[in-house]
Amino acid sequence: MFRNKLRxxxxxxxxxxxxxxxxxxxxxxxxxxxxKPAVGNPLREALSLAGSGNYGAAMNKVREAEAAAxxxxxxxxxxxxxxxxxxxxxxxxxxxSGTGARAKFAxxxxxxxxxxxxxxxxxxxxxxxxxxxxxxxxxxxxxxLGDYNGCLRYIRNTIGLGGAAQLAMTCASQAGDMxxxxxxxxxxxxxxxxxxxxxxxxxxxxxxxxxxxxxTLDLYxxxxxxxxxxxxxxxxxxxxLALNLGSTAExxxxxxxxxxxxxxxxxxxxxxxxxxxxxxxxxAAAFGNNLASAKSEKRGDDLLRLGEYLVGAGKAQDGVGVIxxxxxxxxxxxxxxxxxxxxxxxxxxxxxxxxxxxxxxxETENQKTIAGIWQIYAAVQK
Length: 382
Description:
Strand order of the largest sheet: 1-2
Oligomer: single chain
Largest sheet: 2 strands, antiparallel
CATH architecture of the domain at 208-379: Alpha Horseshoe
Mean pLDDT: 84
CATH class of the domain at 208-379: Mainly Alpha
Order of helices and strands: HEEHHHHHHHHHHHHHHHHHHH
Distance between the termini: 63 Å
């Protein structure tokens, strides 16, 4: 019964006819077709082919008509016939179930007809069968077509970036949308702060243009805290940055960890190890005198360096106090000083205070970027 009604309905759509009920049977009354032969003829053939079960050939005729369609009426007729053939091809006993539409959707994807997969999405939507998994398949169809912007746009507009995070990340990267890459990286870390997800976020942040040495040092600090120090170069970079910026105890601790992890063969890294060890020893011996001198100065830049040194030496609570004194005196880089303060507070176990500090940093875009990553790190700590 359903198949008879479906065929009558399709015929009416193609020929532009009216359908009236006569003694309970659907009867087609011919009317003006409103389509040119180049569209109407292949659509009639599609109807016949679908009726005989030759759905592939029927869909080819639909495509032929689609290529010739130019008016809104013709395009509408083509779309309606496509729906008819799709439902019939799936063997649906009830069009409202969407069974046929789902079958075509799956078959098109398996056959690599990715443009058809995207078109099938509208048919699934009509039958209420467009679920989250179908959205992901359609997004993958965009990816397979090389339409990375379309993939990213589709994910954003349907299931959200977090609903297909890995695929969205790949499409964003291929499309060169680094802002989306960073947003996705943040979302992934917030949802699951694994070393792998942290690595993506830190790699993305490291590509930020114009990072200052102190900002790069912060990224390596977070890299160390999230168990992403994987090579001798990682430890050597952290060591050198810390030494150059006056955090000598931190620098020595970093290279010591690299040695302990068997990642830094002494034959290559002994000179840097000795340099870091000697620098840390000198800083420790001179700390008292340097602190007294820094407190007597009108500006707080030297105090700021000493406060950061204390954090790296494992005395974060003391470092917080010294850095606050430095800020009160006034420093040449207020945003950088706030980053140092937030880091010290976080290392001292003052998570809420650290988050407030990081949120308040507004000086430069790069400082806000680093502060945002520190906020994420603080937020996901248990």
